[in-house]
Amino acid sequence: MKPFVLLATRAEDVPADEEYELFLRYGGLTERDLIRVRLESEPMPHFDLDELSGFIVGGGPFNASDPWDRKSPVQRRVEAEFQALLERVVARDFPFLGACYGVGTVGSYLGATIDGTYAEAVSVVEVSMTDAGAADPLLAGMPPTFGAFVGHKEAISLLPPQATLLASSPTCPVQMFRVGSNVYATQFHPELDVEGITTRIHAYADYGYFASHELELTLSAVRRIAVSHPSQILRAFVERYARY
C-alpha cells in the first residue's frame, strides 16, 4: 500500500507519540503505512502525491486566528507550508483529513472566518450530521447524532461557499466539512478514546483550555457520554483512499 502521511505539530513527546499510536490503531494502519512528520521540529518535506494514499493532520497548539505578531517563527513556517501543500491538495482534490487543527489549516486556506466565537471546552459534545453528511461516504453507517471529543480555542464561524457542511453541534456550527470530493476537516477528534484524551488533559493542563482547579471536572466531563463512533470516520478514510 502507498503510505498515508500524518502531519503533526505537538511538541510534547508523550501526547505526540500517543496521537500517532491512536491514528495507527483506529485507522487500521502499521508504521509502514503511516509516515509521521513532526512539523514543530522539522520543515515539511516535498511530497510526491503520486506516491501517497493521502494526508492526515492531527491536532496541535497553534491557533490560526492569533495575531501575526503573536505567532512563533515555527507557527509561521508551519502555516506557510500548509498553504503551499493545500494549493496542490485542493487543486488535485487529493485525499486529506484534518482533525481539529485541520479545520484551521483548511479553513485558513479557503478564507473561512476563524475566531473564538465557537470555542469549546474539553468535553464530549453531541454532533449531528447534515443531509450532506448523511450522504457522504466517510459518514456511512454513522448514527445521525453521535458523541465526540472536543477541546479548542477557535473554530470556523463562517464557512465559505465552496465548502460543504457535513456535521454540526449546538455549541459549534462547523464540526465537519468537505471541499471537493476528497478533502475533509473535522473540529472534533476522530482518533481519540478516553485514555487518549485523558493523556492530553494532563499534558495540556497549563495551556489555558481550562482553569487549574478544573482538572478533575474536565476529566469527568470526557467520561459523561460514551464515545465510540468518530473513529469510524478515520477507518473509512483509510479504506476509501488506500492506494496500491
TrEMBL record:
Gene3D superfamilies reported for this sequence: 3.40.50.880
Q: Which Pfam family, any one of them, does this sequence belong to?
A: GATase
Q: Give GO terms: molecular function aspect only.
A: GMP synthase (glutamine-hydrolyzing) activity
Alphabetic keyword roster: Ligase
SUPFAM superfamilies assigned: Class I glutamine amidotransferase-like
Which EC numbers does the record give? Answer: 6.3.5.2
The protein's superkingdom reads: Bacteria
- What's the protein called, per UniProt? GMP synthase (Glutamine-hydrolyzing)
Residue limits of the Glutamine amidotransferase domain? 49-192
Matching entries from CDD domains are given as: GATase1_1
Gene Ontology cellular component annotations, sorted alphabetically: cytosol
